[in-house]
Amino acid sequence: MDFAFTDEQDALRQGVRTVLDTECSVDALRAFELADEDGRAELARNRWAVLAELGAPALVVPEAANGLGLGDVDLVGVLEEAGRACLPEPLLETAALAAPTLAALLPDRAAAAALAALVEDDVSFAVGGVDVTVDGVVSPTAVSADGTLRTPRVVGARDAAIALLACRDADSGWQLHAVPADSCTVYPTPALSSSRDLSTVHWPLDSETLLAYGVAAEAAVSLLADRAAAGSAALLVGLADRMLAMTATYAKERHQFGKAIGSFQAVKHQLANARVALEFARPATYRAAWSLATAQPTLSHDASMAKAMASDAADLAARVGLQVHGAIGYTWECDLHFFLKRTWALSRAWGDAATHRRLVLAQVRRGAKGTRTAMSDSRQ
Amino acid sequence: MDLTFSAEQEAFRAEARAWLAAHVPADPLPSLDTAAGFEAHRAWERTMFEDRWSVVSWPTEYGGRDLGIFEWLVFEEEYYRARAPKRVSQNGIFLLAPTMLEYGTEAQKARYLPPMASGEEIWCQGWSEPDAGSDLAGIRSRAARNAGGDGWVLNGQKTWASRGAFAEWCFGIFRTDPEAERHRGLTYFLVAMDSPGVTVRPIPQIDGETGFAEIFFDNVEVPEDQVLGEVGAGWSVAMATAGSERGLSLRSPARYTEAADRLLQLFHQRGGPAASADAVAQAHMDAEAYQLHTYWTASRVARGHAVGVEASCNKIFWSETDVAIHGAALDLLGPDAELLEAGAPGEWLDGYLFSLAGPIYAGTNEIQRNVVAERLLGLPRG
Questions:
Q1: All domains of chain B, ordered by start, with CATH?
Q2: How far is the C-alpha of A159 from the C-alpha of A143, rounded, in Å?
Q3: For position B248, what pLDDT does the model report?
Q4: How confident is the model at residue B310, as a pLDDT?
Q5: Residue of B nearest to A268 (CA)
């Protein structure tokens, strides 16, 4: 038993934090939101190049595919820092979802080509077509009359070289595709967090892009959902940490009745509640990363528990953060809103706290804390 | 990072499980807050001590096995899993002992620890006073030099002393320098409850049993060698105990994971509305999160770091988790919840009443929230 990070893991996380302090400062977030489409794309490209220099996007790509060959425990701290910085680029989708999913499908030709592009050309990936519900994993991908597939809420599609997209139909079951950008038509979707890159993607069903189908695709999609729950928990832990730090700083600076408002117990206790929630969401999140890295039979349980606790902790930090900031927190000038909006989006993406609580309960009631199943044909 | 126990630790777990299976009384002991129950629990401590199970993490010379923090956690997991009796010696072995091992003289350790480990001497805690609860530094009970200058004379009143009605010894803090600033001038004393001038008035608790007591000190003579730590350093010595109490040693996570498992079984048997399903799931997650957090902290300790200030979150979390687990069980029991029957539901009701004390003792959760806000978030003192 040694529930701790190594010095190297701590150093990697610190390196990412140092870089993001500059590259993804609140001034940078502000400039990013105000930029036109060309300017936005350039800012995103530049920041991604810096992250690629650190090796972050290809962290878990195996050495055999020329990656760093690190694991989910190395990655979790990096994701937490990305959350802390409110990073707009799809690091979760690229590094924690697409890369390990593709790596598990090697030596598949399409997977190998996609990973080569990640390692050599520093591209990013988009991910979509998978939703987590209390009944299991489902696909929101729909088929139009002309046979084109439409996947809503794809993350990272505007700048991605390849989109990892899933679809499912009652006859043939799940399919997982690696679709090149030039085959995708991307319709950016306005969303609350404007720095979050969401789109509806139209794409053709093409055997050339097929990575897996049937049982293999179902297993890949189920694991991807666990990865998404665990990874988004890490982002939310980082967001909660940042909002608490910002709010504590503000509560020390802002004076009313001749005192810092942070000296009032009504303020202190709200912040303490949020701090306690974060304190206990954190080890649950780190455990989920370890369970991923070591393929524990309890992985689905552990990932759901992490997502439920991290969603609740971040939602509470957001709620308390806004309340303690008061009216200034309700303005666009105040930095807080970037983190609030990202939290409100992520706490519900990949299954909200209530959904994951039910999934946890289903798993412990089965007694096995077993692996989550993608919705199978018999269940629809 | 490794979240598995070693083969040696698993072997130790098997050994503990086998011993507990063979020795835990088949029928629950009478309540330890009655005279007969107190003695029955003392006898159980003796049984454990004889096979070196009462204080596994202590040095062997005092009756322990010199095991590490993870072995202690494994033992606790097995102890709760076996539904073994409550620890009547807990104030001594979990609160005083860690402080004594740090601040005590060799002679004190040799004198007090072995009979504490065997249950021969049960300790109660004399901290709170009628006017010093959350504001612990406001204590007024005082200790003055005796006429001969070789000891102390104690006067004053302590209250809410758990096990105080039956205990042989009391550890408490007394004011030795009335001129000094509140947090200074306090000294930590060890007092025999049969000393002339000690009067105990048991206080019936919410369940009608005498779980705690008031203790009156009327010119109680205490020799010099019953001072723990430096004269005047009582506050910092006491805070070391508070650290154990709020941090790692008082409430092991096994207590909550075991209760959450039983809650799950109850839900499985009886079913309940959607809100109960959420509460059962949350209880399971919170108990497990506390366990993980303890492993996290213990890993730091095993690497030679101190328990961090993050531990100030613990007491809030375990005490409120405990209330939530037992409250959820009563909700599932519905109209049966008020029944004082043996086994469930009476057991859940007992547990609920016990849990409700948690957010109050060992520093109220309001004080704990101030501590979290001030020490972890850096907010100014009020």
A1: 7-88 (1.10.540.10), 123-232 (2.40.110.10), 251-376 (1.20.140.10)
A2: 24
A3: 64
A4: 81
A5: B373
